[in-house]
Structure formats: C-alpha cells, structure tokens
Design a protein that fits this description.
Layout lengths: L12 E3 L5 E4 L5 E4 L3 E6 L5 H13 L1 H7 L9 H16 L3 E5 L6 H4 L1 E7 L5 E7 L1 H10 L15 E4 L8 H9 L1 E4 L14 H5 L2 H13 L5 E5 L4 E8 L4 E2 L12 E15 L14 E3 L5 H10 L21 E6 L6 H5 L2 H4 L14 E2 L6 E2 L5 E8 L10 H6 L1 E5 L10 E2 L2 E2 H15 L12 H5 L3 H23 L4 H7 L16 E7 H5 L11 E7 L10 H9 L3
Parallel strand pairs: 4-18, 4-19, 5-15, 8-10, 15-18
Antiparallel strand pairs: 1-2, 2-3, 6-7, 8-14, 9-13, 10-11, 11-13, 12-13, 16-17, 20-21, 22-23
Helix pairs in contact: 1-2, 1-3, 5-9, 13-18
Length: 560
C-alpha cells in the first residue's frame, strides 16, 4: 500500500504499474506520489544518479514535479532536467533532501545514533550521544507538519537561558515583551570586542562560559528555552539577530547589557523537560547548550503538551498546503551491512509501522534512551549497481520493505542516431546482447555512456566523444567484467568477425599465435595441451583503428 500526503485529501486514486499512486488534490490537479521506500537498481551507466535526483524531487515536492509535465516515455527535456537539478539543490540546502553513501564499515552509530568522544574544557574525555543522519532527518520530518516559524534552523542548537533566575521578575517580563534576551555582568564591556577586561577575567568558569556562549556561539535560528524551575520551561524563542551590547541594560537591571534579539514564539506556560533531558535537571549556569536535545525533539515535546507556537497555526490560505516531505537518498545501499546499519529500525520503516498508522511502533533507542518512531513523510530512496552485487544477494529484510525499480540500458533512446555512419542504437544493443550471453544482463552497458555522443550536434566532436567513451568507459568496464579474458572481450567487440578490407584491419585487439614447436623446439612435452598459444593485446588508443568509423560499424553489421 502506498501513501499520499494527508493534507491533499485525494478524491480519486489509481495504482500504477511502477508502484506509484496518483490522486487529485483539492483543486483538481492530478499528482503522482512516490513509494515511501524504493530502490533504483540497474547496470552501470543507466542514469541512476540523475533518476535519483528526479525521484527525490518527486517525493519531496510532488506538486512541483507535477507542474513540470515530464513525459514518462521520453524522459525529461534539457529544460526540465535543469529545473529538477535546481529544485534538488534548493531542497538539499533546506535540509529536506539528504544524501549518504553506504560502505562496508558504515554502521548504526553513523546512521542512527552513537557515542562521540569530546574533550571538555578541563581536558577530560567525555562521551556525547550524537545523532546519525537517519535520526536527524526523521526528527526534522516529524515537525514539518507544524507550519513552524521560518526562522527556526532545524539543524540548530538548543540553549537553556535563565533571566535573573527561575522565578518571576521584572527583567524577565521585559525581555519576553520586548522580544530580547538579556544577561548581566555588564562591567565586562562589549564582548564582541577583544581583549577581555579584568572584570571578565575575575569571573568564575560558569559565568565566563555563559557570557561566551551568549555573545559568541548562539546563532540566528537556534532555539532558546527560558526556564521557570530546575526542570521546567516557561517560554521558547528563536534567535533572530546578532549579539549586541546595550550600555543602559533593561529598566529593572542596568547591568543586563548583553542582549540578543529573540522572537519569543510561546510564553506563559510551564512544561517539564526533565524526562526529555535524560532525567537531568537544568544546571546552574545562566546560559549553556542543551546538547542532549535536538530542535525537533523540543518542538515535538511542546506540541505534545498543547503548546502552539505563535506562527504554528496555518492560515486559511494554508489549509490545503502540502506537508513538507523529507527524502533520504542512500547511494550504494547494497554495499552496506543492512542488519548492522539499520538494526531494529528495519521494521520501523514499513509504512504500517510508521508514526500515526494503526500498527505504529515506537521503540527506545539504545544510546540516548529516547523513544523513536519513523514519520510518515520521510521517503527513503536507495540506489544499487547490479554489477557490484546481484539483487539476489541482498538482505531479505530489506527486499521485503522496498519497492524496486529496475533501470536497464535503453538503446532505443538513441532513435538510431548515426555518427559517421555508426548507428548508436544498434551498436549498444549488439554489445549488450553479447555481454548478456557471455556474462549476464546485470553487467550490460548503460545508455548513459553514449549520451555525450548522442547530445553532441557536431559530428566530428561526437565521434571524438565516441572514442573517449570506448577508451575511458567501455573498454575498462569490459576488462573488469571479464577479468582481462581478452578472448571474450574480443568476442564482445566482434573482432572475430571483422575481415580485412582494402588492407585495413578493423580489430581493436591484436591477436598473435605462437607455435610451441617454434618456441621450445622438438620434444617439449606439451602435447597434452594445445599446439600453440594465442595471446591478445589491446591496440593503443593512438592506433589508427580507433579513428576508423568502420571499426565501430563492423561491431554490429557482421552479426545482423
């Protein structure tokens, strides 16, 4: 079963052959929705990289993709490809599309969460729970339906702030009304200037750290939690401007000269954060980063307690706005140890087990001890090269949970375009038929290898690019496939069928036969073997044969 955005309110749906769903939104526009989990697989050179870009944009912003009107049969035009690339870059910069490559040493700690060693200020080693890319994008996706303030940086930090203590006071009330944050120790002077004065240096470590955090490290987009007790928060805001030193302070505290513009999004509430903060009370310092908390966790925690941020309620014009889908692209997904990387989360990525569904599963993560579920608007797109590993050898648990889209070579895309008389469609089709027989279909050559030739308008330049494709792509790949079994490579290239004509040799591989009698004389004792030895040598790429169009034409013309 596939899904569509809850906010679309589909009135008509249709299951397509490739596993996608189409639905009409509230204004009658038909939009195609992607599977939550899919893998694009195929041979080298079939355009998986670009199709990953297309699939990611389609999943992250289906309405935008629909507007491009890409022909499924012909594929994207040059203008459409540019639009997809631009959109992909914008979504990536916004954190809605993220990319990771699996490899043999990649593990759960990098993907979900793990411990990371850090050096404290007193040069001691401490271990901090660090979020992996999957947990990070899951957290970001989980809050995307709240219509959050655009100033919030979902990858930013969370800060604890105490304004003249946890109790009610005039300084705090002024700050919350004036959309600022302010702390004391005004005699230090402007902390945006160096060096630090004697008063600053006379302060203890906690005070110095608070001042440095406040003036040097808090950045625009970070969240600020103003506390009202050792465990609870009474206001949340987002840093909206740079640090400034105000000599007059605030009305009730003239020493509160260190100030930051803060957009207070919600206030006058009291929500306990002890459990979310690993059952730990807030520490004494006035200002410090809450490293155990992510922006998404804070926002979800407040939302679960009924705290609506000032810009969180959608306007009437937003009532049918698409939720923000997020996409995690996993390149070379078949090269990683899936059990090691996903761990217990392999079950949570199933659609029925995701947050908000009937069979939702929430589990406790091993390092942070926090509960975790996978949101319904997180799409996972994997790619795999079948020349590296067959689909048959993939982890069974992964195969059950992903839709697979095969991407095989399509010589027909060249539409029998000729370059110096060389038919690109027939050339690639013949090469692949021979590879299929001598090896298998999972090691055939992708059409992308010859697309630079196809797209080049100038025929002379196109022929140069064809030679480059053989030199840099096709021949090296054949060497890898056949482990330098040059006789098979010779058969793929059709050299055994190329006849000498007009004194020209169209074979790419030179064949030489040595007689054992000629090499070793009589009585060499090798009669149990063949009478001669055949050796093969690829002709140098500066050899004239590579400049002969007939050498490429005869790859396919003799066998048809």
């Amino acid at each position: 079963m596939k899904r569509w955005s809850k906010t679309i309110e589909p009135v008509l749906s249709d299951q397509q052959e490739d596993g996608e769903m189409t639905a009409e939104n509230h204004n009658g526009t038909t939009i195609t929705y992607s599977p939550l989990n899919q893998i694009l697989f195929g041979t080298p050179g079939t355009g998986k990289t670009f199709h990953t870009t297309e699939a990611a944009v389609k999943a992250a912003d289906p309405a935008f993709y629909c507007q491009l009107n890409i022909d499924p049969a012909a594929g994207a035009t040059t203008e459409q490809r540019q639009a997809l690339t631009t959109k992909y870059k914008a979504l990536s910069e916004a954190g809605r599309i993220r990319f990771v490559t699996f490899h043999q040493s990649y593990g759960y700690e990098e993907f979900v969460e793990g411990l990371r060693a850090e050096t404290t200020e007193d040069n001691q080693i401490s271990y901090k729970v660090s979020d992996g890319i999957f947990k990070s994008i899951s957290n970001a996706a989980s809050v995307s339906e709240l219509h959050l303030d655009a100033d919030i940086n979902h990858n930013g930090r969370v800060w604890k702030l105490s304004i003249e203590g946890a109790h009610s006071n005039a300084a705090k009330s002024h700050c919350l009304e004036a959309n600022i944050a302010a702390i004391g120790w005004g005699k230090t002077g402007d902390l945006s200037q160096e060096p630090r004065n004697e008063y600053f240096l006379s302060q203890g470590t906690n005070n110095q750290n608070s001042l440095n955090y406040f003036s040097q490290e808090m950045e625009e987009g970070d969240l600020v939690l103003c506390i009202d007790s050792k465990t609870s928060v009474e206001a949340i805001g987002v840093v909206s401007g740079p640090y400034r030193y105000v000599e007059d302070g605030v009305p009730s505290r003239h020493d509160y000269c260190h100030q930051l513009p803060i957009k207070w999004l919600a206030k006058d509430f009291s929500v306990d954060f002890k459990e979310l903060n690993n059952n730990t009370q807030f520490s004494l310092p006035t200002c410090y980063p809450l490293s155990r908390l992510s922006v998404a966790e804070v926002l979800n925690h407040l939302h679960s307690h009924g705290i609506e941020l000032s810009d969180s309620a959608p306007s009437p014009a937003q009532s049918h706005v698409e939720q923000h889908n997020h996409v995690l692209v996993i390149d070379e997904i078949n090269r990683g140890n899936i059990s090691k990387i996903f761990g217990e989360l392999i079950t949570l990525i199933e659609e029925s087990k995701r947050a908000g569904n009937n069979e939702e599963i929430t589990l406790t993560l091993p390092y942070s001890g926090k509960t975790f579920s996978v949101p319904n608007n997180l799409y996972i797109i994997g790619t795999m090269n079948t020349a590296d590993r067959s689909l048959v050898t993939m982890d069974t648990a992964l195969r059950r949970r992903f839709d697979f889209k095969e991407m095989m070579p399509k010589p027909e895309l060249f539409n029998n375009r000729t370059v110096k008389g060389i038919d690109l469609t027939r050339l690639l089709a013949t090469l692949n038929k021979r590879i299929d027989v001598l090896y298998d279909r999972e090691h055939t050559l992708g059409h992308a290898f010859l697309f630079p030739v196809f797209n080049e308008a100038n025929e002379d330049n196109a022929f140069i690019k064809l030679k480059d494709a053989f030199k840099n792509k096709i021949i090296p790949l054949l060497e890898e496939y056949f482990y330098e079994d040059w006789n098979k490579i010779r058969l793929v290239l059709g050299d055994n069928q190329k006849e000498l004509a007009d004194g020209r040799d169209y074979a790419f591989i030179h064949t030489h036969t040595d007689s054992y009698d000629a090499l070793f004389g009589n009585n060499h004792g090798l009669e149990t073997y063949e009478d001669s030895k055949v050796t093969y040598k690829l002709k140098a790429f500066d050899d004239a044969v590579w400049d002969q169009p007939e050498a490429y034409i005869t790859i396919y013309s003799k066998s048809e």
